[in-house]
Amino acid sequence: MNGRVIDTEDVEVQSGPNRQASQSPRPRKHRGYLIAIALGIVFLFTAVIGLMTRFSERKALANETEALAVATVSVVHPKAEPPQEELVLPSTLQAFTESPIYARTNGYLKKWYKDIGSSVHQGELLADIETPEIDQELLQARAARDQSTAQLQIAQSSAKRWESLQKMDAVAQQETDERSSSFTQAKANLAAAEANVHRLEQLESFKHIYAPFSGVLTRRNIDIGALINAGNNGPNQQLFNVARIDPIRVYVNVPEIYAPSVRPGVKSKIELASVSGKEFSGNVVRTAESIDPATRTLLTEIDVPNPKGELLPGAYAQVHFALNVQVPLLSVPVNALLFRAEGIRAAVVDANGQVQLKPVSIGRDYGREVEVLSGVEASDLLVLNPADSLESGEKVSVKQAGAK
Questions:
Q1: Among 157, 177, 205, which residue terminates a domain?
Q2: Which residue range forms the structural domain that includes residue 35?
Q3: What pLDDT does residue 14 have?
Q4: How many domains does the chain have?
Q5: Domain assignment present for 379
Q6: pLDDT reported for residue 395
Q7: b or e along 219-250 (b: 16 or more beta carbons within 10 Å of the residue's beta carbon)?
Q8: Could you identify which of 141, 194, 298, 322 might form a hypothetical disulfide with 259, taking C-beta atoms 3.0 to 4.6 angstroms apart as the criterion?
Q9: What are the contacts of 218-222 at 24+ separation with CB within 8 A?
């Protein structure tokens, strides 16, 4: 009890630092583990991110390479043409009636009364021909007719006299028969003389050249004093040419595909470069009712009123038809077609993204577009500007024309 008293506070004070010193190594070691684990996690996460990035880049590169291996093409749909379309065709104008005029007798041109461009009426005098040889022959024929008339009168009197004498048995029957025969022969001679006179009078009447119908004189090939040959001793020369131009005929060759739509009564409009800004109306009056095997066209005639003479025969014109299309047609851009040795082809993209080369038949050429008669449908996707090396079965990536 008398021993040394131990102060607990002193003991605690003294022992406190030593205890802390003995316990401090444990927390430091624990922190080291935590730091190592954190660094490991960060490293692992970084490695995973790196691997994922590399995998993604490789996949993107593979996709890009695959995408680059497939050609990207622009496509369009064939355009349906309207059910009623305007058909424009070249044509030629011809006179409604046209006739060359030739001489029917020989001689020399005495005078002409009408020149080219003159309007003439049916029966109007165009020219006169001098026919001295015909005139002389006609005079001789008339004189011969007069002789035959006189001989007939004598033969007739003799025949009657001999018949009277024969009744009184004053002359022989043979003599009476001879007089009767002479009378018959005289009548025949007079008939022949009359026929010759009529023939020469007809030839002499040909010295006057008349217009066969009303129209316009389009040609005069002779002048005063020219020798006229009617074709007896050489080629016959055309003197005039007359044409009736009101109405005027317009001839046009209609393609076979439109032939069923062009029938008599169909209205049309005619345009001429020489008469700019003006249209002329006419109706189809007749067709050839037969397709020309050489051109595969139907010859069609249109009559157009021409009271002012503005439409001239031989002129070039364009005929406009407004037709109802019997068979729906399509048109495609020219650059959507492949022109190859085996024929015209269209590159069509199917539902699987593969190209199919289809043969097509084309119709009219509109410039940037052409009419397609067969081979494609309105729902088809056509490749624009297809490469010459493009073949059926190739896979392509589709881009609509005009898309960015």
A1: 205
A2: 8-67
A3: 45
A4: 3
A5: yes
A6: 86
A7: ebebeeeeebbbeeeeeeeebbbbbbbbbbbb
A8: 298
A9: 218/95, 218/98, 218/116, 218/117, 218/242, 218/243, 218/313, 219/100, 219/116, 220/112, 220/114, 220/115, 220/116, 222/109, 222/112, 222/127
CA-CA distance, 398 to 72, in Å (whole number)? 6
| φ/ψ (deg, to 5) at 312 | -110, 140
pLDDT of 45 reads 76
End-of-domain residue from the set 205, 222, 254: 205
User: Which residue in this structure is represented by tokens 């189809």?
Assistant: 284
Whether this prediction's pTM lies above 0.70 is answered by no
Dump pLDDT digits (tens) for 95-130: 999 999 998 888 899 999 999 999 999 999 999 999
Is residue 86 included in any domain, yes or no? no
Whether 388 is in a domain gets the answer: yes
Peptide bond into 247 cis (omega under 30): yes
The CATH number of the domain holding residue 175 is 1.10.287.470
Cα 250 from Cα 302, distance rounded (Å): 5
If one counts every other C-beta atom within 10 angstroms of the C-beta of residue 346, the result is 22
* Angle, vertex CA 85, rays to CA 80 and CA 89, nearest 5: 125
| 192 falls within a domain | yes
d(CA 216, CA 242): 6
pLDDT for the residue 60: 66
Q: Provide the sign of the torsion angle of the four alpha carbons 151, 152, 156, 162, taken in this order.
A: positive
CATH number at residue 348: 2.40.420.20
Residue ranges for the chain with pLDDT beneath 70: 1-30, 59-69, 166, 171, 231-234, 325-327, 400-404
